[in-house]
Amino acid sequence: MDPRLSLLKLASVSSSHVSFPTRALFSRFGSAEEILRASPAEWETTEGVLPYTVRRLREVRDDSEAAVMLARLEEGGMRPVSFVDLEYPENLTRIPDPPPVLFLRGQPRAEDRGAVAVVGARKASAYGIAVCRSLVAGLVGRGVCIVSGLALGIDAAAHWACLERGGRTLGVLGTGLDVPYPKENLPLFQRIPSQGVLISEFPPGTRARPENFPRRNRIISGLSLGVLVVEASRKSGTLITVRMALEQGREVFAVPGDIRSPLSKGTHRLIQQGAKLVDSLEDILEELPALAGREHPDSVGVGQPETREDPRPWGSEDRTVQSGGAAWTKAVSLAGGEEAEQVVGQLGEEGTLIDTLLERTGWPLEKLNGLLTELELLGRVRRLPGNRIGRCVT
């Protein structure tokens, strides 16, 4: 059997899971093939494996859909790597919940370990775009790899500024690598593999769903030594990336903005809570000394404002960059209906197991995850260790 089939099956299980016990399963069984060959009794006696995981592993073991995904994998020029493969990013192996399988397009390099994530508003202002491009240019000039999520606004600006300076960039998707999202960034999808890597934990063919993006965000922060936030509203999904960065022990940086702008509310709150205020490149480098002495031989005008014309929508100086598609809009819609109250009512400060919520509601995991994502963005619930969801006390 093609060994990639086992990786595809394992990715199918983990990508539909709230928290997959990657480290425990690979420590015990050694490879994706051996994990799938194990008996249900062996899965059940592995630390951190929940009943839902066992059910999904049983369902996928003989899943013929993996063969269909394999064909998509080959057509799209993607390759899967497992948690124990040498190509698996070293920084990511150290986070609490690393994906068991990643899909890559492009060639990883050792220097990608010296990475900084740049994230922020999708409806970015001209100020935010200009600051983002200037700081990224400076980081690239020090040989720093730039990580972001290929969203519109700040994400796209960071990727493009890096590519234009000849730097390395890692783009992390919340879809399969053969499903460019948002479509406006198709040129980025096509360009990044030549100067970096496209990365996703989601199998080929996976479409954009609201619950995918918080999962993607933990990979963005996990690949990086620190996270730089350029513009974020108080309810921005960017703040989920920040929370995950803090849980992973990463540095957090925030660029201050106009106190009258809603796009400054999130960044200013981060600064109040202890994020490092950034008004120059040195503010980042002094917290990440391993990056301070690095130089990029092809950099030009490092850290200086961009003056050349740029035809891309995100580079426009006279208009606000528009937000992404309906999937994200749905994710941040108000979650105040009966179903939301049904879930919140079952949560205490100490948290409730995801499996318990699945049993009580009878919903598919995808539906529960989507609702929990909405509630998390609204500050009504929080994710706790041990696959628990807790109610936020206001």
Low-pLDDT runs of 5+ residues are 297-336
The main sheet orders its strands as 1-2-6-5-4-3-7-8-9
Instruction: Please tell me how large the radius of gyration is.
Output: 21 Å
**What's the CATH architecture of the largest domain?**
3-Layer(aba) Sandwich
The span between the termini is: 54 Å
Mean pLDDT rating: 82
Secondary structure layout plus pairing:
Layout: H1 3-14, H2 22-29, H3 32-37, H4 40-44, H5 51-60, H6 65-75, E1 79-82, E2 101-106, E3 115-120, H7 126-141, E4 145-148, H8 154-164, E5 169-172, H9 186-195, E6 196-200, H10 212-222, E7 226-230, H11 238-247, E8 251-255, H12 265-272, E9 276-277, H13 281-285, H14 289-292, H15 326-331, H16 338-344, E10 352-353, H17 354-361, H18 365-377, E11 381-384, E12 388-391
